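step: validate -> pass
step: tokenize input -> pass
step: predict -> running
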Amino acid sequence: MARRQRSRTRRRLTLIATPVAALGTLIGLVCAPAQAAVWNSCDRWGNTALNGYTLYNNIWGSGAGSQCIWANSGTNWGVWANHPNTGGIKSYPNAKKVVNKSITSLSSLRSSYNVTVPSSGAYNSSYDIWDTDYDYEIMLWMNYNGAVGPLGSFQGNVSLGGHSWAVYKGDNGANQVFSFLRRSDSTSGTVDILPILRWIKDTKHWMGNETIGDVQFGYEITSSSGGMNFVTNNLTVSSS
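step: predict -> pass
step: emit ->
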């Protein structure tokens, strides 16, 4: 499996890229839904807040092509991306919900998702969950396609939060990364995130009672040559 790179949305990499061309903007808008989206952007770091979620275009990797994001709401949005067939993650367009609660103070942390993704290209549809200090990254891959793979070494299989996962543990030099790859692809469903966090903390002792900051959901795109659409039909993140 290919080595996974970090996906950051708040700590942006210092890479500088040429802005997306006007043609990319036009194509991105054409690929948006028939109804007029309430927001769209083809900027590399384009972002906005809608309905309690923050949306990011987030083209953070090197060698990226064009990418445009649109949104009807914080829970219904999509991306048109045209990234070349080369290695390395190009982007992680996503919607973020802030939690800011410690694991032990959480009584519930759940999410529902419904997506439409391409049958070709190289990508994963994933949750990216961070503690407030960005020392720990927990990824939940709900589906994936093409030459992509997690960082680190295989730790075994586990059933948690309503799904069966292959678990990987690694370190990218700045933070620990725990990746849970669903053992069969899913484009819709509900995931109970809190049991996963408790398993990492209490069963494996890989982290302490961290304060969970961001729960992000999006598409980690390595390649989408020719232009492909990734649509979040519905996404909800709730905590208590």
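step: describe -> The chain has one domain: 22-239.
step: cleanup -> pass
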